[in-house]
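Exercise 7. Predict the joint structure of the components listed below.
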Amino acid sequence: MRVVVTGGAGFLGSHLCDALVARGDEVWCVDDLSTSGPGNLGHLRDEPRFRFVAGDISESLRIPCPVDAVAHLASPASPPDYHSRPLHTLAAGSRGTENALRLAGRYQARFLLASTSEVYGDPLVHPQPEDDWGHVNPVGPRSVYDEAKRFAEALTMAFRRSEGTDTGIVRIFNTYGPRMRPYDGRVVSSFIRQALRNEPLTVYGDGSQTRSFCYVDDLVRGLVAMLDSDEPGPFNFGNPDERTVDELAHLVIEATGTASGIRRLPLPVDDPTRRCPVIDRAREHLGWSPKITLGEGLRHTVEWFRSRPPDDGGPETPHDDGF
Ligand code: UDP
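Solution:
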């Protein structure tokens, strides 16, 4: 297959590019590198079945040949990233999704939307099944991401219904693993970075809020299965092993052997109190479920963070160079 991966230089996107190239697909990665660096793709530089196109998909998305599938992952995804780039986030979810859908429609290609657990907002139903319609503050600071993804889902379904586009939607819950940016502000990357520097782990609020963390390899296996299917979804993709943020902090302390303690900081506005996916649909329709335990996944991730050069620890500045 020839597959376009928007956001293919990012954390999830680069792992998806790897999995597709490894099984023999031709991959066109499109990314504006606004919240990622080309470093995630350096190992694919000499791979003949891999192409990199630098560009903002909310402006245009042109590929000079027919394609079989479009995996649309491009968007700022960590809370600090979408808070600092609110208009860019809304544009990626709206115009960017439309451009990606039009590309898929032109070639009768499979279209995969990487949506998010954020469509459930601060959920009233727990754990979250796909038919929970969500509890989102439309004017809160998180709305730029939540509503962009909700709009992207609506647009995807409209293309499916009115244009006959072969679409699939997955809602991705918290995912972690190698290639997370140390300063992306997410909880796993922040805790590991802090632990490895023997700095206190910054727990927001009382640490009783929960998340369910899925290791990246499990997640990518699901994305590939969804690309290969003709299932419309939406399917929740995540690991139902729900943990409090406090518990996660202690697991990271244990996995790193750090001398760090805990520092409590205020809870961000509209921070969801609970998150846990019901994954019965993905299990039934795709035969997918996560396999890697949180302990094992954290060990791999810590190992990767340890292997980074010492000067890799600074806040990353946006890149606008391709390679
Ligand atoms: N969090 C925390 N300390 C940090 C970063 C995040 O306690 O240094 C908390 C955050 O308030 C949230 C949870 O960890 O309750 C997950 O945050 P993250 O930004 O990773 O993802 P999201 O909120 O989008 O699920």
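Discussion. The CA atoms of residues 1 and 25 lie 5 Å apart.
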